[in-house]
Amino acid sequence: xxxxxxxxxxxxxxxxxxxxxxxxxxxxxxxxxxxxxxxxxxxxxxxxxxxxxxxxxxxxxxxxxxxxxxxxxxxxxxxxxxxxxxxxxxxxxxxxxxxxxxxxxxxxxxxxxxxxxxxxxxxxxxxxxxxxxxxxxxxxxxxxxxxxxxxxxxxxxxxxxxxxxxxxxxxxxxxxxxxxxxxxxxxxxxxxxxxxxxxxxxxxxxxxxxxxxxxxxxxxxxxxxxxxxxxxxxxxxxxxxxxxxxxxxxxxxxxxxxxxxxxxxxxxxxxxxxxxxxxxxxxxxxxxxxxxxxxxxxxxxxxxxxxxxxxxxxxxxxxx
Length: 320
Prior knowledge:
The chain has twelve helices and eleven strands. It is of the alpha/beta class. The chain has a six-stranded mixed beta sheet, with helices on both faces. Helix 5 crosses helix 8, helix 9 (206-235) packs across helix 11 and helix 11 (255-269) packs across helix 12. The longest helix has 30 residues, at 206-235. The model has no long low-confidence stretch (mean pLDDT 92).
């Protein structure tokens, strides 16, 4: 645990402020404890942010207890941030959006260059399975990145069982989120129903294998995304009202690069990444590679895609 956190922080210059995103659960408390131990040895300042989503009656008390445990570890600053969770993107998506916004604002407030998230190897495996179920592409199957801008996930190779053991060893009292047992959430069903069945059928080690697969795919996805970004610079332009893609330029590129550029165009037009599937992008790609007079393609968030005079046009409710 501590070794993983040390490795995740080792490249930071002395004096850097890092914040642990702590929910009070076993994973984030274990991360907080390891960070409190390792950060001073690296010359870093370490604090914590507890986001109170207000989704449960005792959420304020849970947040308070988590903040006190973080302070007892020696983390400073420690702050609780209450947020309002909207309805867009479903309950999980809306809570995630509110949480990440709060973490970014906290980082600005405390001039922190890094926010640590406590996603484990088990979380990574669940993410890969959810991506497979959605029919997503390689980027989704690559799972969560260890480093993504402000955010770092130093525990992605650490099993969830290790965080529970670390809390016991440190005398910490983790909170158990009842949402983690609620089968209305897809991730909960994957955790408690799908993965155990796969492990029983295929033998132990499936979780590790899924997480390892994510790591292998990530390097490939990063390289292809870089090529797609270069292609988009040439083939995709945004006007005030729409995103326009040059069919001739896109058609000359390999599918793996072209479809990534189209996905980026869809995101720029207003689609949410969590709602955009490989099936959506394949349908848009068919406007280039299998054109036989299709009228249009409808994408999430009301984005419509049409082929018009040598271009693919994406805009809210655009018509031919």
